[in-house]
Specification:
5 helices; mainly alpha; 0% strand; binds protoporphyrin IX containing FE
Length: 169
């Protein structure tokens, strides 16, 4: 295996692990802790500063996943012209890759909505008017965007393994 291919796969898997690990930490550790009554005073500011910090880590991972994903495809022997051929996308590998890229595009769109719109508006209003119905609505929206993104990420990992090892169908 060429060294650069190994480095690309290594970075691809690490970027996925850091991004997904961060989302799992937020969902299963940070949010349950800040929901405890004794943490209500700091909850909104903690989610705001943590969210901003994880936003830059998360997007760095997503950009790295796209770049190393393209390198992986190159080392799999696919030229740019082949990526435009129907033959590739009709093959079992191509079908899995098409589904993976569709889910990846959905993740980028949901991450944009969560990280640059709903999330910042939810935490800002949560700090200003914590009991308002609008703050509650935006927090629920942000939570659901995050949960759907995590589920899509888990599906993308399964598709990634299929690209590397073959699909069960
Ligand atoms: C959320 C984003 C992504 C995650 C979590 C992810 C995860 C993975 C995982 C876990 C593997 C399996 C590695 C192995 O078993 O050896 C993999 C393989 C692969 N991924 Fe991704 N991936 C993502 C995005 C992408 C994108 C955007 C592309 C294409 C531009 C891509 C192209 C590939 C390729 C070609 C392989 C096969 C590597 C090989 O065996 O040669 N991935 N991915």
């Amino acid at each position: 295996m060429p060294l650069f291919y190994l480095i690309s796969l290594w970075l691809h898997i690490l970027a996925g692990a850091i991004w997904i690990g961060g989302m799992v930490f937020v969902a299963l550790v940070l949010v349950p802790v800040i929901r405890r009554p004794e943490n209500q005073g700091v909850a909104a500011s903690l989610i705001q500063v943590t969210g901003r910090r994880f936003r830059s880590v998360g997007w760095s991972c997503l950009i790295l996943l796209l770049l190393t994903g393209a390198v992986n495809l190159f080392y799999r022997g696919f030229s740019v012209s082949e990526l435009w051929s129907a033959e590739l996308w009709q093959s079992p590998f191509g079908l899995v890759l098409a589904l993976k890229l569709f889910l990846f595009g959905s993740v980028l769109a949901l991450s944009c909505a969560h990280d640059f719109s709903v999330g910042p508006r939810a935490t800002a209003l949560w700090r200003k008017e914590p009991a308002s119905a609008e703050a509650g609505r935006l927090r629920r929206q942000a939570s659901w965007l995050g949960r759907v993104n995590l589920l899509l990420a888990l599906a993308i990992v399964a598709l990634g393994i299929m690209l590397a090892r073959g699909s069960p169908w």
